[in-house]
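Hi Q.,

Before the meeting this afternoon, I wanted you to have the iron/sulfur cluster prediction in hand. No need to reply - just skim if you have a minute. The sequence and ligand are here:
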Amino acid sequence: MPASEQENQWRVSSGTAAVLGLCSLRMEAAPTTAYLMLGERCARNCAFCTQARASHAHAAALSRVIWPLFPEDQVVAALARAHREGSIRRACFQVTISRGYLEQSERAVSTLARACEIPICVSVAPRNPEDVGRLLAAGAQRVTIALDAACERVYDRVKGGSWAQTLSLLTECAALYPGHISTHLIVGLGETEREMAEIMQRLHDLGVTIGLFSFTPVAGTALADCSSPDLLHYRRMQAAHWLITGDLARAEAFGYNSQGQLVNYGMSPDRLRELLAEGTAFRTSGCPDCNRPYYNEHPGGPLYNYPRPLTRQETDREIDALLDTLDG
Ligand code: SF4
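Predicted structure with the ligand bound:
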């Protein structure tokens, strides 16, 4: 669609649009964050992304989700109402790299911030810390700079560009704007579990909030024929994320086999069971109130990220299955 036709319109994830009353959709779990997309086809070429330059996926798709366009003023009014009523507790702009994307993000953030007090996130590729500062000054509560890959090797292969430079921008921004910087990490792009646990520890020590995703093959992308990670691989990484970000254990204490697979968390199975007992480790992680329903999974399951609290049985089942994969 030509840029002129997109002016004053925002893409809204279909689940978000349903919660906002902009369309009707049957959902097993409703989003508690409003997901909005800004920009056109991205200038970058991440191999997993539906919005990548070379992707053949539909222009309205991001990951598994479809994002129809709605007039900006209609979305802002509906969001202000949903925030007042408590059905939506955060708004998240996902921004592709296209002409004027930073100015467009700033404008969108300040429009929404003027209309209501909802906490706003912007997931964007800033060029420098000043870009981040401008978004925060416009009214964003958090800026997310996606690292996506756990290490240089994987970053090179699936994203291109420099992992080290993105990490250094995250480091600088986390020091300048403490408590306001998040990132995304994708499990299952070819990194070892050790590499993922180590980068989570490093980012947590910097004060960066981590949203964990599972790699999801989507038609039209370069990685469409690859598989999602094994569910237990993902569960081991969710447990590592929970322990690291809760300051309950450090990655240096974890044990790994010769393939870099996590085989223990440096504690007894009973202690691990106790620390995971609430089941929260298996829920969607990242900014507060972000549950991203069905972003990584089919509604029929399996649920990589639970978008809602787990039942007692689900928690016990996940912990038992996880413990079965560990030594001792
Ligand atoms: S963690 Fe959730 S709310 Fe935060 S930037 Fe990522 S998708 Fe948006």
